[in-house]
């Protein structure tokens, strides 16, 4: 049954996290697992939520998320976000991980202030500097962080990065390390910077080795193991 293989996958991911943490000296309990849940059914997500090891469900598209939305579950937005969709999310998602421009941040701030809430967000880094993807370059993170501090209804909690596909491990490691440096530079002067969201199915371990404390597995968690 579907439920069984997902539990097995989650056990394997937990073991992977523990193994890497043993090597790096990180505390495995401090690593959050965000299930990248695009295209997965709400029934499946409810079952997984009961397990208790998933910190949040990360959705990519507002419309799909709305069709699944259950306030009993914890949700993150991890996909590219249009400004006109912000109103649906604010106050309902734990974390908007994909803030990559001031106009988007301002709209989140405006709606949050209107509703009397503070919205947690992450700055998205386009680590591979790919044009088709969202995110800012790592070098601009510090300055963007400062700009976001002018928005009182926004709580910026860290950085998120999506790595490019199909590049060599050594290259990927360089990209992750670059994001980590940007993260550490900000964290050194602002204690509110405490989340580094990196690592998907194919690069989970490497991301953890490079200091990630929030991983976002999708296929590794939901698909039968033999597919990978
Ligand atoms: C889909 C997605 C993931 C998960 O990808 P997998 O390769 O299925 O693990 C993680 N982060 C983001 C932003 C995604 O869009």
Automatic annotation (TrEMBL):
A Pfam family that the UniProt record links to this protein: Ala_racemase_N
Any GO MF annotation of the entry: pyridoxal phosphate binding
Record key words, sorted: Pyridoxal phosphate
Keyword tRNA processing listed: no
Residues with the N6-(pyridoxal phosphate)lysine modification: 38
Domain Alanine racemase N-terminal per the UniProt entry, residue ranges: 9-222
Protein's UniProt keywords contain Acyltransferase: no
InterPro entries: Ala_racemase_N, PLP-binding_barrel, PyrdxlP_homeostasis
Cofactor: pyridoxal 5'-phosphate
NCBIfam families the UniProt entry points to: YggS family pyridoxal phosphate-dependent enzyme
Family: Belongs to the pyridoxal phosphate-binding protein YggS/PROSC family.
Function: Pyridoxal 5'-phosphate (PLP)-binding protein, which is involved in PLP homeostasis.
Xref: HAMAP family: PLP_homeostasis (MF_02087)
Name listed for the protein in its UniProt record: Pyridoxal phosphate homeostasis protein
Protein source organism: Candidatus Stercoripulliclostridium merdipullorum
